[in-house]
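Consider the tokenized backbone below.
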């Protein structure tokens, strides 16, 4: 059984999601832990639960979702899983960091490029991958059919959607990604977003104003 632990980190109030199952293996999505106190919160949780981190994954590479990548990659000796087309997004983070007065460490050197059709495996669990661009040029969403869990990054929020006014964003593309990929899932699939509270596919199908116009 997959458990999801969500942390809210950094100045952008970004959700970092840790998924783990009965094997003790875990994967870390979008670590936003930028400050030492935030890094300690994440590391203490992993230590207290006796978890073994096996994968570091970015749904997309906007600055708020990658601030903790260097810490996690170094501490747990992990490769970074991401879509190759997000490299340009990632390379722009130094410019964004300067704008917000933040210090960016270098992008982890070891990367594994993933795309729709691939699977992410950890412990006894498997996640399917959806290509869901629109908020970012190559955003990915992750889905476990057995547990009915979806990690959506900044594609879909509770009664909202991701911004499309940032580089790589496109409103029509984002709406298409949600309607053709995420809305192909069952109503009771629980969605863990990159910001805000969890929601369900059914709730967003029925109540999201951006998708019911």
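A designed sequence for it:
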């Amino acid at each position: 059984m997959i458990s999801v632990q969500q942390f809210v980190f950094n100045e952008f109030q970004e959700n970092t999601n840790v998924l783990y199952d009965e094997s003790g293996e875990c994967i870390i999505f979008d670590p936003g832990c930028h400050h030492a106190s935030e890094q300690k919160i994440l590391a203490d949780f992993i230590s207290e639960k006796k978890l073994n981190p096996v994968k570091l994954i970015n749904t997309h590479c906007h600055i708020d979702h990658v601030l903790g990548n260097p810490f996690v990659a170094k501490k747990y000796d992990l490769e970074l899983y991401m879509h190759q087309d997000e490299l340009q997004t990632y390379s722009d983070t130094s410019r964004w960091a300067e704008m917000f007065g933040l210090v960016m460490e270098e992008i982890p050197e070891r990367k594994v490029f993933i795309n729709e059709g691939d699977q992410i495996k950890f412990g006894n669990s498997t996640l399917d991958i959806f290509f869901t661009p629109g908020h970012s040029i190559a955003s990915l969403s992750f889905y476990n059919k057995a547990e009915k869990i979806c990690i959506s990054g900044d594609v879909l929020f509770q009664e909202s959607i991701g911004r499309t006014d940032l580089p790589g964003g496109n409103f029509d593309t984002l709406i298409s990604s949600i309607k053709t990929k995420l809305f192909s899932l069952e109503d009771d699939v629980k969605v863990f977003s990159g910001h805000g509270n969890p929601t369900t596919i059914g709730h967003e199908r029925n109540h999201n104003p951006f998708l019911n116009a």
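The chain has seven helices and 14 strands.
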